[in-house]
Amino acid sequence: MNILVVDDEKEIADVIELYLKNDQYNVLKFYTGQGALDCIASTKIDLAILDIMLPDVDGFQILKQIREKYTFPVIMLTAKTEYMDKITGLTLGADDYIPKPFNPLELVARVKAQIRRYTQYNEGTKDEGDVIDFGGLFLNRQSHECTYNEVPLTLTPIEFDILWLLCENRGKVISSEELFHKVWKEECYKNSNNTVMVHIRHLREKMNGPTGKSDFIKTVWGVGYKVEE
């Protein structure tokens, strides 16, 4: 698998490359944003690790351009700890973020988790449990296809997971804590509710943009989210 690593701090990029190669990943390493964009345009990428602060094109701009065409997982790597940087990355379609300094083994573990989540929608056998079709929404878990009122939507794996879980439990309110636990496969932490909220907002924007409808996912204040039967 091809892992794109973009960081202008050579020592950090080299450490990431070393640990990923130890797990048999093919690493495409760049110290500038433009080099990474050129690589994305010409090479199949399975996952990207992006630093935010780069000397030319920042990580947010690279992420934005990735999400215009691709759904592969993106992990943001940043020395910044400001809350809004995390929110910005998640809103633009990042799947995870890791603040510096970090444990390389944790980074590799998160890479593996994101790749597992992504590949489960592109492989496997098809059966009736792979499809949800109601209310103008069509989801195919095998092909990762999503259309809403006949308009194709490009969803990240986490966005797809959230929408699938809500639709699978339509009519039932799902709390932010349950969404986080089942989608991220982690225990909740202080900002997990905000993380879910950002992804819900991003989903609504994608569904509202081409269709003009923004009420498919409903907020039950103080409880959670649901879609109607």
Automatic annotation (TrEMBL):
GO biological process assignments: regulation of DNA-templated transcription
A Pfam family assignment: Trans_reg_C
4-aspartylphosphate carried by residues: 51
UniProt-listed CDD domains: REC_OmpR, trans_reg_C
The keyword Transcription regulation is assigned to this record: yes
DNA-binding residue intervals: 129-229
UniProt cross-references to InterPro entries, sorted A to Z: CheY-like_superfamily (IPR011006), OmpR/PhoB-type_DNA-bd (IPR001867), Sig_transdc_resp-reg_C-effctor (IPR016032), Sig_transdc_resp-reg_receiver (IPR001789), VanR-like (IPR058211), WalR-like (IPR039420), WH-like_DNA-bd_sf (IPR036388)
Stretches assigned to the OmpR/PhoB-type domain: 129-229
GO CC entries: cytosol; protein-DNA complex
Keywords, ordered alphabetically: DNA-binding, Phosphoprotein, Transcription, Transcription regulation, Two-component regulatory system
Sequence ranges assigned to domain Response regulatory in this UniProt record: 2-115
GO molecular function: phosphorelay response regulator activity; transcription cis-regulatory region binding
Protein's job: May play the central regulatory role in sporulation. It may be an element of the effector pathway responsible for the activation of sporulation genes in response to nutritional stress. Spo0A may act in concert with spo0H (a sigma factor) to control the expression of some genes that are critical to the sporulation process.
PANTHER family: REGULATOR OF RPOS (PTHR48111), RESPONSE REGULATOR SAER (PTHR48111:SF2)
Family annotation (NCBIfam families): vanR_ACDEGLN (NF033117)
Protein name per the record: Stage 0 sporulation protein A homolog
